[in-house]
Structures are given as C-alpha cells and as structure tokens.
Design a protein that fits this description.
By secondary structure, the chain is mostly helical. It has one domain. The chain contains four helices and no strands.
Amino acid sequence: MLNDNISADENWLAGDKLSAADIAIYPVVRFVEKLAAQEDVSKLNLDILPIQEKYPKLGNLVQKIDEMPNVESLYPPDWR
C-alpha cells in the first residue's frame, strides 16, 4: 500500500526530501479525490474519502505539497 511506503520520519515517498515520486503522485491523488467526490462515483461507496483520514501519511504528503508556494497556480482552472 502506498500509504505504508511513506516513512513516519521522512514524510516523502523516496526519502527525506521532495522527489519526482512525490511530484508524480500528487496530481493522481488530487484527481482521485475530485473523481471520488462526484455524485455518480460517490454512489459506489469506495470509502476512500477523506484521503487525510483514510490514508494519513499520503494525506500529509499531499498537504505538504499544497503548502508550497504557487502550487495552486498549477492546477487546471476547473480544479480551483
């Protein structure tokens, strides 16, 4: 499980600092969150939201990237 691969000490996928692995997984997690929140998909009861509660280490990783300067400006317009 991806959540289990994040070290409690490091909070990143591949070590103690941001890497390509973190950058690659970030939009995937955000897309899954957006998709899972859609009415038609939410009827499937996937039980993956909220990410922060279900997968806390992954949620923390995403939150750390969210807090970086100018990250939100990189979102597609309909994601803001």
